[in-house]
Write a structure and sequence with these properties.
3% of the residues lie in helices and 48% in strands. By secondary structure, the protein is mostly beta strands.
């Protein structure tokens, strides 16, 4: 059984920063590709960022490019981060981490929420004015 757990959410003022973490654990053998999505109240889940299993491929939604950075922990297997800077009120939502056993070579694949094998329960990010 595989478990995905996100952490690091919270309340922050606009312009501030947060770092989210995602850990894939359990019956895990390989390195997973990981993607970050978010969902605001009344809206669909949307792609934010993704990182390949090796860490060499990184992909971002246009709305977060230049502000968010996705990375992997080189020392801890299947651990990824989302550094969020210059946060805006529109960044508010529940942030979910998805894991895929293979991953993709483009944003198109990473942005398909229906293709991920495992999901966490999410962590709330609230950006206030």
């Amino acid at each position: 059984q595989v478990e995905v757990v996100e952490s690091g959410g919270g309340l922050v003022q606009a312009g501030g920063s947060l770092r989210l973490s995602c850990v894939v654990s359990g019956h895990v053998i390989e390195d997973y590709a990981m993607g970050w999505f978010r969902q605001a109240p009344g809206k669909d889940r949307e792609f934010v960022a993704g990182i390949s299993w090796s860490g060499s491929g990184k992909f971002y939604a246009d709305s977060v490019k230049g502000r968010f950075t996705v990375s992997r922990d080189n020392n801890v297997k299947n651990t990824a981060y989302l550094q969020m800077n210059s946060l805006k009120i529109d960044d508010t939502g529940v942030y979910f981490c998805g894991a895929h056993r293979v991953g993709w070579g483009s944003e198109v694949g990473f942005s398909r929420a229906d293709l991920y094998h495992h999901w966490g329960r999410g962590t709330q990010v609230t950006v206030s004015s």
